[in-house]
Design goal:
Two copies of one chain form a homodimer. Chain A is of the alpha+beta class. Chain A has two domains: 137 residues, Nucleoside Triphosphate Pyrophosphohydrolase (Alpha-Beta Complex); 85 residues, Arc Repressor Mutant, subunit A. Chain A contains six helices and ten strands, in the order ββββαββαβαβααββα. In chain A, strands 1, 2, 3, 4, 5, 6 and 7 form a seven-stranded mixed β-sheet that branches. Chain A has a three-stranded antiparallel β-sheet with strand order 8-10-9. At the A-B interface, strand 5 and strand 6 of A face strand 5 and strand 6 of B. Chain A binds a DNA duplex through helix 5.
DNA sequence: ACAAAAGTGTTCTAAGTACACCCATGC
DNA sequence: GCATGGGTGTACTTAGAACACTTTTGT
């Protein structure tokens, strides 16, 4: 089995950073670590790479096992590889991030699994270097969302333009002009207006929209520039 | 040492994809693999992650050991992790890419080290999944270069606008209007015009420019859009 | 004198931004 | 009838794209 002589083998872990949106604020899914060290502290959902799987497979397996989720937007981020990052044993961790519509899975996740949603603004301190991994993931999410329509992953099938605007404002921690926002969004021709309205947050009600799934899949990589200078977000 | 019981340890490798530009065409640095299997075949510059180093450290160490290069633009790309990608033993490889001014290091590299430059268009087939890793790296390079002034890493200290345009045209395999190109480039205020000219490729001669190093470092993340729709490049 | 590459300016179009009022409804 | 959030249009500014002629100089 060990055919390259004189080399060190080590553990490869996958840690999943899962963002959820409930219509108002951005949240993060965390679990209480079930084994030593740091047992009982909050942690990202993680696991070790198995002999017969790729990293993508491992990320999907771990996400499913710990949350029941399948088929979500899952992106490989940078690796965490400082030699002492796991005090127990040398482990290189590969970060993945996922985006989900929180309402869709809220009960399922919190009842069947020992995971909890935290407001990003009220996130507890995490084990090892997980805090930094989350920071990086947020930065990457913001960056990606400037150029790609990924944020729709965080909304229900039917949503209103004000809700969508809330989401963008939550992610960028800023305010947009609704006229310009609506015009930009609709100019993508990615949304289909519905006949019915959501009256839960106003008397007048706001029209529901649905994603045009075909166009969404096809145009995923040609979106628009929501944020004038996306670059400051990466540093 | 093995304190997480029941888990598989494996090798973590770093492979470096090194791009060079000689003023005309984009090249790739390869070495002949020195050990079995696939000994004697062309390969990326790689090595295994050592116990006491991070991945970034390993990439820099390997690059220096195999080429003598230090302090170049080195970016972590995605991992290659298919279970059978290395037929000898399970290995996860982390790809890094670097950009260098080929003329600056040409002799050093090819004499002291057993590495060779290949025109990208005439690259031989590589071992394992290295061909795919190179493809991904090119795609990422093109994408990054649409928004960041990274391509200056590929040019000498003094260069002319036509040479810079050649570089962009080589990377995107396309043609630009020189009026628009010059205007765009100069509008960044990142270049400082020199008094002397390069007469090697015309009678009239083209003015040299130098990078304003301070502005380059500061403005690295606010560049311009050279390529109308950068997104098709990622897939 | 001419070939070969360098350099330069204007017009048009598209996208972003700023900005203010009317609409529909539940209370 | 009024308070609340939803919806819409216009003028301005900026950036990109298309496009052709003049300049320099070695031969």
């Amino acid at each position: 089995m060990h055919k390259y002589p004189g080399q060190t083998r080590l553990l490869v872990a996958v840690d999943c950073i899962i963002f959820g949106f409930d219509g108002d604020a951005l949240k993060l899914l965390l679990i209480k670590r079930g084994f030593e060290p740091e047992k009982g502290k909050w942690s990202l959902m993680g696991g070790f790479l198995q002999p017969d799987e790729s990293l993508d497979n491992a990320a999907n397996r771990i996400l499913k096992k710990l949350t029941g989720l399948e088929g979500v937007f899952l992106e490989q981020l940078k690796n965490a590889s400082a030699p002492q990052r796991d005090p127990v044993e040398r482990t290189v961790s590969v970060a993945y991030s996922a985006l989900i519509d929180l309402n869709k899975y809220k009960e399922q996740i919190s009842s069947e699994y020992h995971a909890e949603w935290f407001l990003l603004s009220k996130k507890p301190g995490l084990i090892f270097d997980h805090d930094k991994m989350v920071e990086d993931a947020i930065r990457k999410l913001r960056y990606n969302a400037t150029m790609h329509p990924i944020l729709f992953e965080l909304l229900p099938d039917k949503f209103t333009l004000p809700k969508l605007q809330n989401l963008y404002e939550a992610i960028y921690d800023t305010q947009f002009d609704k006229r310009n926002f609506n015009r930009k969004i609709l100019s993508t021709a990615l949304l289909v207006k519905q006949k019915d309205k959501d009256k839960s947050s106003s008397k007048k009600g706001a029209y529901y929209y649905k994603l045009d799934k075909k166009k969404y899949a096809a145009n995923f990589r040609s979106f628009l520039h929501f944020i004038p200078n996306p670059d400051h977000l990466l540093r």
